[in-house]
Specification:
single chain, binds 2-acetamido-2-deoxy-beta-D-glucopyranose, alpha/beta, FAD dependent oxidoreductase domain-containing protein, globular, 360 residues, Rossmann fold, six-stranded mixed beta sheet, FAD, nine-stranded mixed beta sheet, DAO, binds flavin-adenine dinucleotide
Length: 360
């Protein structure tokens, strides 16, 4: 009989991990409070802590910091995860046109580029595996405040089209789902009557349970009906961001956005929305419709599950011998790193369960 793994969480991390575990031959159950649904019915108040519906979501290549040290190590680790994710997104988009994935150019304009950008040549970017990377000429910048720019090939997903697709795949392959809010993570090992024997649990709960290093980064964005031919990101000199992420699949385009550490305000600000729209229209006027406008649909407020020290991707053997693989704290990069994280989850589960089987 295959070993049974329970995944806590049905955000992009729990779903991707669950599918990779199935591919590795495990029997998998997902236990979660929130499951993917059409975006139109996700509740902005009661489901604000379920981050996956509120993401963009695009892949932005992040070059590693040039100076050796923990920052560079972390960036290289995340870059490797984003490359694994990119490969899988490419294969999925080709095989499953309805998965919610769209490939398009990614454009970046930076007003105050850090050393990792200044050092980035087209040769270095090719070595890092960033496809179609090209440094923009100054005459391609939208205005004189931009100091550095680039273009590359990347992907965007429509988050709930994509997550509903993953959930369907999981169930079609025999996965079980269990809609339940856990008050304490060890509950998974105590739910025998519902779940049977649990050989390992994966903690893909987004912000974990009581990890003191977890916080949130609030993001306010909004949706417009205007389609866009690229995903565009601008870093402003004051540290703020102006970006768009086309969702595809008739989902409009996300215009953003803020990054506000520890701000728990669930209400969108109308002034912030007006600023986001005005700044994006000035940066990328190609998005405007024939009347020169952006057609606003709705505001979004989300909470990126941010962890001091970066994402947690490791095994913990709790008292009593229960095996838990943690996969949370993805911050603003959950989609970008999802398949890389899921593949690592499988390696961690496998090494723990095989190691244990050989000791019996
Ligand atoms: C405005 C905004 C823009 C973003 N843009 C991008 C982007 O462009 N690219 C990108 O890669 N990322 C982006 N992100 C980040 C991305 O959305 C997150 O990193 C990702 O959604 C996190 O996924 P997750 O599966 O870890 O967590 P979640 O989606 O929060 O899922 C957590 C799961 O755990 C369950 N859970 C939690 N606690 C319990 C409990 N006690 N009992 C039972 N179940 C529980 C929840 O119900 C849910 O199913 C953005 C985020 C925001 C807010
Ligand atoms: C979201 O999470 C925070 C922190 O854990 C909690 O205080 C709050 O009640 C949650 N909100 C909802 C709507 O569940
Ligand atoms: C999930 O992570 C928290 C830390 O945030 C930890 O206390 C808990 O043990 C983990 N989950 C499981 C299933 O144990
Ligand atoms: C929190 O961060 C500190 C310092 O970065 C680290 O020593 C500690 O182990 C972390 N705690 C958890 C639960 O990961």
């Amino acid at each position: 009989m295959p070993q049974h793994v329970v995944v806590i969480g049905a955000g992009v991390i729990g779903l991707s991990s669950a599918i990779c575990l199935q591919e590795a031959g495990y029997s998998v159950t997902i236990v979660a409070r929130d499951f993917p649904t059409p975006f139109e019915i996700v509740d902005p108040q009661t489901q604000i802590n379920y981050t996956s519906p509120w993401g963009g979501a695009h892949n932005r290549w992040v070059p590693p910091h040039p100076v050796p040290g923990p920052e560079r190590d972390q960036a290289l680790r995340e870059h490797a995860l984003s490359l694994s994710t990119f490969k899988r997104m490419e294969a999925l988009a080709a095989a499953q046109p309805a998965a919610g994935i769209t490939f398009m150019p990614g454009i970046e304009y930076l007003e105050s580029p850090g050393p990792e950008y200044v050092a980035l040549t087209e040769v270095a970017a090719a070595e890092l595996g960033m496809p179609g990377f090209r440094i923009l000429r100054a005459d391609e910048f939208p205005d004189a405040r931009v100091a550095w720019g680039c273009e590359y090939r990347t992907w965007c997903v429509n988050p709930m089209v994509y997550c509903c697709f993953l959930l369907r795949q999981f169930v079609l392959r025999g996965g079980r789902i269990f809609k339940r809010e856990l008050r304490c993570p060890d509950e998974v090992f105590a739910l025998h009557s519902d779940l049977g024997t649990v050989n390992a649990a994966v903690n893909a709960s987004g912000n974990g349970f009581g990890d003191k290093n977890m916080s949130i980064t609030r993001g306010q964005t909004c949706i417009v009906t205007n389609p866009c031919d690229a995903t565009v990101t601008r870093q402003n000199a004051d540290g703020s961001w102006t970006f768009c992420v086309p969702r595809g699949f008739q989902g409009g385009t996300v215009i953003g956005g803020t990054k506000e550490p520890d701000n728990w305000d669930p209400e969108p600000s109308v002034d912030v929305r007006k600023t986001l729209l005005r700044r994006f229209a000035a940066t990328y006027p190609r998005i405007l419709d024939s009347s020169g406008k952006l057609q606003f649909v709705r505001d979004i407020v989300g909470r990126r599950p941010t962890r001091r020290g970066g994402l947690r991707l490791e095994t913990e053997r709790a008292v009593g011998g229960n095996v838990v693989v943690h996969a949370y704290g993805l911050g603003g990069r959950g989609y970008e790193l999802s398949w890389g994280v899921a593949e690592e989850v499988v390696r961690l589960v496998r090494s723990e369960l095989e190691g244990r089987a050989s000791k019996l």
